[in-house]
Structures are given as C-alpha cells and as structure tokens.
C-alpha cells in the first residue's frame, strides 16, 4: 500500500484530504508545516508528499528544495498545491523538482485524488484506477441474476 504524506497548515483541509485518500486505500501521515514535514519524511519515507506552498516556519518551496538535496528523501514524489497561480510560481515548483503543481482554486478534491493516483502510477491507460498498483483488490464482477 502506498504511503502519502499530507503537508498542510490548515487542519480542516488536511483532515478532508486524509479521509478521502484513506478511502482510496492509501496510508496517510501528515505534517502541519514544512519543518515538521522534513522530519516526518525522513522517518516515514512516504511514496508521495502532497504539500501546500504557503506555510509557517518553512515554505513548501524551501521544503521541496531541502527534500531534493537530502539523500534519504530526494526520490520521494511531490505534488505542490498552492493558492499562487502565477506562471513564475509554477516554474519555481517545477524547477525545484515537483512532480505536479496544482492551484487550489482550479482543482477540487477529486482532481487531487486523481493527481495522486497518476503520480503514483495507480491509473490504468483508460483512466480507471489500477488496484494492483496500490495493492488493493478490485471487487469481482458479479453476473446478473436470472429470475
């Protein structure tokens, strides 16, 4: 099962994303700011980090820069989420090594879930979720009952 770390200083948003991604079969760890996220990332070694950009202590951009320069965390996939929609900010995230950059005002929770599946390689070619990639089992299709 893939482990996803949520880094968000808004506790309500962090809980909403946590509940939704848990329902998708992911193990969730979380942090409330970039400083805490760095410690949790080294300890927990998540497969993916979904992080806000504007946070107290250490910004998401600075956190990403440190993650990419730390041997233990350099290969963790990262999705940056921000209210900053400027192209300069998007380029900064990509140049620092973000695997995806989402603008909060332009995406809903299902878009975030789909981005998580996509970045982790959990989607099949047709866009459906590939349960084998997340070590979950798909329900067995049932034949219609004849009456």
Explain what this protein looks like in three dimensions:
This protein is an alpha/beta fold. Helix content is 37%, strand content 17%. It is built from 5 helices and 5 strands. It has helices at 11-23, 34-44, 60-68, 87-95, 109-120, and strands spanning 3-7, 27-31, 48-52, 77-82, 100-103. Strands 2-1-3-4-5 form a 5-stranded parallel sheet, sandwiched between helices. Helix 2 runs parallel beside helix 3. It starts with a strand and ends in a 27-residue tail after the last helix. Mean pLDDT is 84; it is low at 124-145.
Write the topology of this structure.
Elements: E1 3-7, H1 11-23, E2 27-31, H2 34-44, E3 48-52, H3 60-68, E4 77-82, H4 87-95, E5 100-103, H5 109-120
Parallel strand pairs: 1-2, 1-3, 3-4, 4-5
Distance between the termini: 40 Å
Question: Biggest sheet: strands side by side, in what order?
Answer: 2-1-3-4-5
Mean pLDDT: 84
Q: Rg, please?
A: 16 Å
Profile the largest sheet: 5 strands, parallel
Order of helices and strands: EHEHEHEHEH
- Please report the total strand number as a whole number: 5
Task: Give the structural class.
Answer: alpha/beta
What count of helical segments does DSSP give?
Answer: 5
Strand content: 15-25%
* Shape type: globular
- Regions with little confidence, pLDDT below 50 for 5+ residues: 124-145
Residues in helices, as a percent range: 25-40%
Key descriptive features of the protein:
five-stranded parallel sheet, 5 strands, 37% helix, alpha/beta, single chain, 147 residues, globular
């Amino acid at each position: 099962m893939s482990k996803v770390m949520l880094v968000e200083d808004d506790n309500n948003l962090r809980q909403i994303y946590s509940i939704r991604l848990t329902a998708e079969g992911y193990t969730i760890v979380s942090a409330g700011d970039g400083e805490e996220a760095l410690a949790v990332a080294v300890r927990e070694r998540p497969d993916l980090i979904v992080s806000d950009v504007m946070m107290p202590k250490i910004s998401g951009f600075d956190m990403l820069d440190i993650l990419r320069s730390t041997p233990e965390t350099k290969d963790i996939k990262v999705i940056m989420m921000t209210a900053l929609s400027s192209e300069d900010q998007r380029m900064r995230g990509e140049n620092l090594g973000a695997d995806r950059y989402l603008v909060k005002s332009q995406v809903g929770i299902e878009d975030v879930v789909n981005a998580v599946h996509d970045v982790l390689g959990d989607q099949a070619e047709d866009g459906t979720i590939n349960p084998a990639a997340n070590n979950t089992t798909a329900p067995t299709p049932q034949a219609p009952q004849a009456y």
